[in-house]
Design goal:
- The chain has 122 residues and is mainly alpha-helical.
- It has helices at residues 5-33, 39-47, 55-67, 71-83, 92-104, 108-120.
- Helix content is 74%, strand content 0%.
Length: 122
């Protein structure tokens, strides 16, 4: 049984697009599930620390993780700056910087958020 090159290419493209969509929606689900948690609680879940109400510790954990190159910590810092959480002043420029760093690591959620910020004119 022969498979034409055209069918093979189409099948391959469908597979790639399907995988991209699967990863994209998985990322969105992961972050929307944590949307109603405070950044401090998320920071605690990030490294397994109990930082409930300890904003200094939450900041320290996230900055250390981001400096180590962890894109999740970068996104959480972006989120914290965007909404003014864990005692960080609301700062859209800082938020964008952290989202850009996470996007450079290939994080799809960060890329999506950057697009949203551009649409909102931030």
């Amino acid at each position: 049984m022969k498979i034409s090159a055209k069918k093979l290419i189409v099948s391959f493209l469908v597979l790639i697009i399907s995988l991209f969509l699967l990863i994209y929606f998985h990322s969105l689900i992961l972050f929307y599930k944590t949307d109603n948690l405070s950044s401090a609680q998320i920071a605690g879940k990030y490294k397994g620390y109990d930082v409930s109400g300890d904003y200094d510790k939450a900041q320290k954990v996230l900055f250390k993780g981001a400096e180590e190159g962890n894109d999740t910590a970068m996104i959480l810092l972006g989120y914290s700056y965007y909404y003014g959480r864990i005692r960080l002043q609301q700062d859209y420029q800082q938020a964008m910087q952290w989202y850009l760093k996470a996007a450079d690591k290939g994080n799809i959620y960060a890329m999506n958020t950057i697009g949203d910020m551009y649409v909102e004119g931030l």
